[in-house]
């Protein structure tokens, strides 16, 4: 592709290229991550539905497997298409970054592609075409192999991302990190905390999807009410349990953030000055990015931030102003006087992330997660003892609730990635000197026009793919169980679930 070839550029181009490259990666990543958690969570739940059918022989569980499995396949296909572009961007817009971290970053990405993705594809194919061709238990094993492979895929991707957040298992040789322990990379404590948190977020998304779609069908009082009631209640319980896990794992991540990325913690609270003990800000009124912190009014829980940081109510939490001084002493006050940095060469480094994004993103992550769990819990209560809510507000509530965990997941990732700026590889406070990189140094030698071209092209293609997914999802959701089951035979009363072909 034409923009892969290095071109000379004006020193004035660099900032624009950097911002455009960040926008492109952010748009495509957030878009792709709309598909990922639904695939992960729904694949496990579909495998569980099929397990229930194999064990009990109840036809409703077979219908559930086929209906939700159809939606899973549509979403998985779109996730694959959009995910492929992600890794190409490391060579397109971030080639300097790729050269710096390639010895480390390539290993978990290769494992994801060669191990997890190939297993996913193989067993998904066997699952799709294996109905009535494979023994029931072998076919079920294919469903579980695919589902577990999606989790393994997430593990390797998160291991790579966590290394950027907390580099371990490397030495610093010839101006770049060289991996000396793949085990250290894969067992990075940042990754081990991120993985259960991300998986819980995936189950939250899948649960809300079940509650929303099944709740709408249940409210319509059409056919297959047993399928919709069972699906809704499964989604409700899974959603509540997922939120509990999110809270526990989020607390673990907060404590690691206090140790590894103190600026991210301070920016999450818009904490300008060091406090001991430190209060947790529930909400702020005013410009959290303003130069005068006293102009911002906050509603706080006293000492709670200290507890979240270190499990006690007395720990000191450093504020943005004090951390700026520390960062300047460790990593410099100005960017290197390097022509590759364009207009940023020799300019002061801004060590403070975008405070409105980090402050409100952190609260949106928590808030949308809580709302999603609350809707699931309410749906469980409203459908107890075979009740069916009759008000028009019910389908609006559960269908609207589908969006809440998607928004929470997206807000969480935006906070995680933007909170580490201006670093693309964050320095490990107890790691090897030199293993860190500014985002401004990571971008490829491109012109603004070339990045604009790829940004517009990819955004347009992704928008078209989004419309396709929405169309297919709407089609099969509205079609219900009948859209994925074959027409009944004349002697359907005697037909066993084993004889029903998978309608794909």
Overall description:
The protein is mainly alpha-helical and 504 residues long. It has two domains: 13-261 and 353-481, no CATH class; 262-352, no CATH class. Helices cover 65% and strands 5% of the residues. It has helices spanning 13-56, 59-92, 95-129, 136-165, 182-186, 189-220, 225-260, 262-269, 304-310, 320-331, 355-382, 393-401, 403-418, 448-479, and strands spanning 170-173, 176-179, 280-285, 297-301, 423-425, 437-438. The strands form three sheets. The chain has a two-stranded antiparallel ribbon. Strands 3-4 form a two-stranded antiparallel ribbon. Strand 1 and strand 2 form a beta hairpin.
Compute the average pLDDT. 86
Provide the low-confidence segments as ranges: 1-12, 490-504
How much of the sequence is in beta strands?
Answer: under 5%
Task: Report, as a whole number of angstroms, the end-to-end distance.
Answer: 36 Å
Amount of helix: 55-70%
- Biggest sheet, strands in spatial order? 1-2
Number of helices: 14
Secondary structural class? mainly alpha
Topology pattern, helix = H, strand = E: HHHHEEHHHHEEHHHHHEEH
Taking the sheet with the most strands, its summary is: 2 strands, antiparallel
Radius of gyration: 25 Å
Number of E-type strands: 6
List the domain count as a whole number. Answer: 2
The 3D shape can be described as: globular
């Amino acid at each position: 592709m034409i923009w892969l070839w290095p071109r000379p550029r004006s020193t004035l181009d660099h900032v624009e290229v950097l911002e455009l490259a960040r926008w492109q990666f952010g748009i495509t990543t957030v878009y792709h991550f709309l598909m990922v958690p639904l695939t992960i969570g729904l694949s496990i739940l579909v495998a569980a539905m099929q397990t229930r059918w194999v064990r009990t022989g109840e036809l409703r569980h077979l219908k559930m497997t086929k209906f939700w499995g159809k939606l899973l396949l549509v979403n998985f296909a779109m996730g694959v298409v959009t995910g492929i572009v992600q890794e190409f961007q490391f060579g397109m817009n971030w080639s300097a970054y790729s050269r710096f971290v390639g010895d480390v970053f390539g290993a978990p990405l290769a494992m994801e592609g060669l191990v997890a993705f190939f297993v996913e594809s193989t067993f998904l194919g066997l699952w799709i075409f294996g109905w009535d061709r494979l023994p029931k238990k072998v076919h079920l094993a294919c469903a579980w192999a695919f589902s577990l492979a999606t989790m393994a895929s997430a593990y390797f991707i998160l291991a790579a991302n966590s290394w950027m957040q907390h580099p371990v298992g490397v030495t610093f040789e010839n101006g770049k990190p060289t991996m000396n322990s793949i085990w250290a990379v894969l067992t990075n404590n940042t990754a081990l905390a991120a993985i259960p948190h991300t998986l819980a977020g995936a189950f939250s998304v899948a649960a809300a999807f079940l509650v929303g779609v099944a709740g709408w069908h249940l409210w319509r009082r059409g056919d297959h009410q047993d399928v919709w009631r069972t699906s809704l209640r499964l989604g409700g319980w899974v959603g509540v349990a997922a939120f509990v896990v999110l809270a526990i794992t989020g607390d673990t991540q907060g404590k690691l953030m206090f140790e590894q990325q103190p600026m991210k913690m301070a920016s999450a609270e818009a904490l300008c000055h060091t406090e001991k003990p430190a209060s947790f800000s529930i909400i702020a009124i005013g410009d959290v990015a303003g130069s005068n912190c006293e102009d911002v009014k906050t509603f706080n829980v006293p000492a709670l931030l200290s507890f979240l940081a270190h499990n006690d109510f007395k720990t000191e939490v450093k504020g943005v102003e004090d951390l700026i001084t520390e960062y300047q002493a460790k990593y410099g006050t100005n960017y290197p006087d390097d022509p590759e940095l364009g207009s940023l060469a020799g300019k002061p480094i801004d060590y403070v992330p975008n405070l409105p994004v980090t402050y409100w993103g952190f609260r949106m992550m928590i808030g949308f997660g809580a709302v999603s769990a609350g809707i699931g819990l309410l749906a469980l209560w409203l459908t107890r003892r075979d009740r069916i809510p009759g008000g028009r507000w019910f389908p609006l509530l559960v269908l609207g609730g589908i969006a809440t965990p998607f928004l929470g997941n997206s807000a969480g990732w935006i906070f995680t990635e933007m909170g580490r700026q201006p670093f693309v590889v964050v320095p490990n406070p107890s790691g090897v000197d030199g293993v860190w990189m500014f985002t401004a140094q990571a971008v490829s030698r491109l012109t603004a026009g070339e990045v604009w071209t790829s940004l517009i092209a990819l955004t347009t293609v992704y928008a078209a793919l989004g419309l396709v997914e929405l169309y297919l999802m709407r089609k099969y959701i509205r079609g219900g169980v009948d859209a994925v089951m074959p027409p009944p035979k004349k002697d359907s009363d005697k037909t066993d679930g084993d004889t029903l072909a998978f309608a794909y």
